[in-house]
Amino acid sequence: MSSTPRTNDAGTGATVHTRTDARLGRFDLRPVDPAGDAELLHSWVTHPKSAFWLMQEATLTDVEREFMGIAASAHHDAYLGFHEGEPRFLMERYDPAHVELKGLYEAQPGDAGMHFLCAPTDSPLHGFTLAVITTVMEMIFADPGTRRVVVEPDIRNSAVHALNEAVGFRIERTIAKPEKDAYLSMCTREQFEAARQAGTTGETGQTRETSGNAGGTKSR
User: Fold this and answer.
1) pLDDT at residue 3 above 60?
2) pTM of the prediction?
């Protein structure tokens, strides 16, 4: 997009997941390139609409270092998401037994954690965030070893609570993290598939949109 900071479209590897939404078109994910994508991601995570990402004061160097750390981790991955070929969202997948939730809940084999962030915009596309979280969940469950997705959104992030519920998440309890109070929420493979079958994650995109961030929060 000419109006946004550049990104290295080649990234650090090829596309790892593709989903076609019947109404909104193609969604792709590739690994984040910490150096090549840092400028773009810095513009997203420091935007006022991305407050729940908890990187408002980050410098460009901070962002590059953050994603270099994720790239080097054995328990954390970051992916840049594209809609119709344009970078539009960010996804992180992590092992909650080692990252974010270590010691805060009883981890089970097959658990996967995730965060996602839609690029802040003044012209939201109806149904877009629902399509994004559906794409993210589909990618995570494409790994046959994944049995359950675990998330820990800020209790104040009402937009993401609605989206999480739409794809099958259920709140287990409130947990206290150093940076926030969060709703520990779970979605099994069966719950996700049931939500899709029920049409909750269908292609009509009936979930209310927000004008910017509507993703799982990121702790610092």
Assistant:
1) no
2) 0.85
